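Supplementary notes for students who missed Thursday's class. We covered one full example, reproduced here. Read the sequence, then the structure, then the short commentary at the end.
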Amino acid sequence: METTRLPGPVVAPVRAVPKLSSVQQRIQVARLAQAEPSLGSAYAQALARWMGDPVLRLAGVPIVTECYRNPARQEELYAQGRTKPGPIVTYKRGGESTHNRWPSRALDVALLLADGEVSWSGLLLSKFARLMKAADARVHWGGDFPGEFKDRPHFEV
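Structure (token representation):
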């Protein structure tokens, strides 16, 4: 059997590493400033470990999507899937969530992908959760909540 080889070296495609713009970086700093210091520190440590891993870094950049939220915002989210369209995202009413305290004892995380899209992949968030819990044993991950409702983007102390 004869094979044909194309000339030139075989080069694997290069995957882009997602990067935050300067505006996105400022937003991240502002959101983290809302967090309980131990939670912010755990996030920073987990983020550094994530970005230091060449495989994880290519999967996406963890970003804080929400930290402190006022009770009115909490009520908006509580209405989703009940009196407003969309899936249920919380079982806590305004004033009941760890997001509603100052400094916030909770933050929500997603992953910014290289194409600019945002992902809430349960698999990727579970990997980030391991890093968060390794950074501070007081961190609880919403993916470990008992019962049917798993709040995978959610981390709290």
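Commentary. The first helix runs from residue 22 to 33. The mean pLDDT is 93. If anything here is unclear, bring it to office hours.
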